[in-house]
Amino acid sequence: MTKEEHIKVGITHGDINGIGYEVIIKTLLEPKILEHCTPIVYGASKIASYHRKMVEAGDFNFNLVKNSESANPKRANIINIYDKDVKIDIGKSTEIAGQLSLISLETAVQDLQSNKIDVLVTAPINKENIQSENFRFPGHSEYLAQKFNVNFNDFLMLMVSESLRVGVATGHIPLRKVSETLTSDIIFKKMVIMNESLKKDFAIHKPKIAILGLNPHASDNGILGTEESDIIIPAINMAKENNILVFGPYPSDGFFGSGNFSKFDAVLAMYHDQGLIPFKAISFESGVNFTAGLPIVRTSPAHGCAYDIAGKNLASPESFRSSLFLACDIFRNRKLYDEIHSNPLKTTILEKE
Questions:
Q1: Is residue 23 within a helix (H) or strand (E), and if so which, with residue range?
Q2: Does residue 352 register a pLDDT over 60?
């Protein structure tokens, strides 16, 4: 890889009392990481040193830099976003942990907006202690959507692993509000976003998408509800009219239980747990949370702060490592897609061939 292709990966440190630093350090301990990217952690060197000792990282050290422009491509870099002493309470939710989560995120996003970094990988936050006047969101996706002027219906939370990709139509809302929130237009829009992401971000030429029903047994032809016939099937028909390869609606239990999901490039669930329970049951260790539909690339591990194992050197870095590699892959795929489609004549020739 040439220097021009070396991707600058901004990494937010998340909740300092969770496993964020542990999985970051364990990931960056691998020398091959630096062959693919230049990692830049937006954190605090003192806090990193504290966690490094608990991880027993040997002679690993972060390279302290003032800004992303001065990051060393041959080192794991860290930018101090906070220079005061901080009390670390491993495994506990604290106010200062929430504040530092937000400062890290805000600083990294500023660099992302200024093209000083190429992609963003976010370590887990506590969605309660991060709440403040500057952060009133249910998660990273909604915050980033506002920062990059994207409406809710124009992005999609997509869970990714080697064997499965699952998106959710409604996201972080109470279960009782799912049915009243869903419309054919919303579902159709999520299908469009998923289809475009599979093409641009995952380099799949003609993606096949499975759509899950809302009710048990996908309503059994109206016996258990009418959302399938009133909302979901019309959305599927709209997608087909727009040359999107969609199939369903499928009952969620049988669809995942039979392994039918392996026949599709992605699955669109109607609500959060319908998609994430089977996803995490199948791919918890390596799962990645990717926000599709944003103009920037952002990924994160599929797990949370994991306070129960924080500080015990038990956390697996597999999900965070997968997040970092996926962010780089998507960045390259988008670049290639743009290059191919920037020349209509070239595209026409390729299609004829």
A1: helix 20-28
A2: no
